[in-house]
Amino acid sequence: MIEEKSLELEKAVLIGIINKEQNAEKSEEYLDELAFLTFTAGGEVVKRFTQKIDIPNPKTFIGSGKMDEVKNYVETNDVGAVIFDDELSAAQQRNIEKILKCKILDRTGLILDIFAQRAQTSYARTQVELAQYEYLLPRLTGLWTHLERQRGGIGMRGPGETEIETDRRIVRDRISLLKKKLITIDKQMAVQRGNRGKLVRVALVGYTNVGKSTLMNVISKSEVFAENKLFATLDTTVRKVVIKNIPFLMTDTVGFIRKLPTQLVESFKSTLDEVREADLLLHVVDISHPNFEEHIESVNKILDEIDSADKPTLMVFNKIDSYTHTTIDNDDLVTEKTKEHYTLEDWKKTWMSKLDKDCIFISALNKENIDDFKDKVFKAVKKIHIARFPYNDFLYQDYE
Ligand SMILES: Nc1nc2c(ncn2[C@@H]2O[C@H](COP(=O)(O)OP(=O)(O)OP(=O)(O)O)[C@@H](O)[C@H]2O)c(=O)[nH]1
Ligand SMILES: [Mg+2]
């Protein structure tokens, strides 16, 4: 496992940009998420910098004036890591490292670091390690190019070149070894999934930290680890659940995030197969999060990438207990009603008109509306169960 970029108890500075796609407010929200990621990785955010730029500087991402400002801060405040919200090229990362003389991470690197810290089973560790090497490979090339250029011309094929080649070869060998290892595990997992028989499979999906594991624990009386950090779950848990008289399988798995690194999506293929092979998705949403609609979009995008967007889906709006909204005074005739003024009832109406019965509002923590939730899951599972076991529907006589 490569863990050289661990952020344990480190002072960190965040850097984001403001441009046509993301205004100052959006940029701030993205940095909030980056701060939460940093906290999850064990770091402490001491300062944020933003810069208005449409086209990032190809050499240093941000402009030189801003870079001076950051450098000044980093030097006087003993900062250990500078974290960019956007993906840096290998060259940019190297250049910035030279200027700031501290650890430079981008969002992808940070997420990989969290996954590395949190992977428990050897299976999850193998998947993360593969993703880390895939991320490292192009950067390894970049790591050396400045030396190549310095040496220049004749004699360039000296030890530097050999070293890069050796390093690259080692990494490539490792990648192919890990891939082989994963193929073997994948096969075992596929057999395991096959052994589960024809039971209906339900998968909890959703953005990270929305309460999937908490809901799993409520429904299945299991004890999946849940906490207020991102990516608490990396491994998949499958439990047999019985509601009324139908048994089915419920899967809790890794949460999604905006711009989930492609390396991770690929190497977590087998974990995501649980989602791909599910008959029914429970898309859990944290309605108390100001960006929950964007979270839904990110999740849908990833579901689309893994060919699972068309599955029967129940939208589960969780954390209604902590939902808050801004109110407009009765005598205020100026303020326009926007989404931040929506009451929970407004949201219910909005989503019910969009999805009809395929949505439910609950609190997994306070067990609010859990009976209705179970009822909806039961009905959805029953529909699939009947289609699968057509001669077996006498089982449901009591529950028509
Ligand atoms: N207020 C409130 N908090 C909740 C509710 N459900 C879960 N939480 C909290 O939200 C946090 C995240 O819960 P998890 O169950 O770990 O979320 P998850 O979706 O499994 O997260 P990952 O595994 O990291 O993707 C924990 O601190 C929970 O206690 C809820 O209904 N209301
Ligand atoms: Mg979880």
TrEMBL record:
Cytoplasm is among the record's keywords: yes
UniProt name for this protein: GTPase HflX
Subunit structure: Monomer. Associates with the 50S ribosomal subunit.
Organism phylogeny: Bacteria, Pseudomonadati, Bacteroidota, Flavobacteriia, Flavobacteriales
Family, as annotated: Belongs to the TRAFAC class OBG-HflX-like GTPase superfamily. HflX GTPase family.
Location of the protein in the cell: Cytoplasm
Residues reported to bind Mg(2+): 213, 233
Domain Hflx-type G: 200-385
Keyword list, A-Z: Cytoplasm, GTP-binding, Magnesium, Metal-binding, Nucleotide-binding
GO molecular function: GTP binding; GTPase activity; metal ion binding; ribosome binding
Residues reported in the UniProt entry to bind GTP: 206-213, 231-235, 252-255, 318-321, 363-365
Xref: NCBIfam families: GTP_HflX (TIGR03156), small_GTP (TIGR00231)
Tagged with keyword Transmembrane helix: no
Function: GTPase that associates with the 50S ribosomal subunit and may have a role during protein synthesis or ribosome biogenesis.
Cofactor(s) listed: Mg(2+)
One GO cellular component, as annotated: cytoplasm
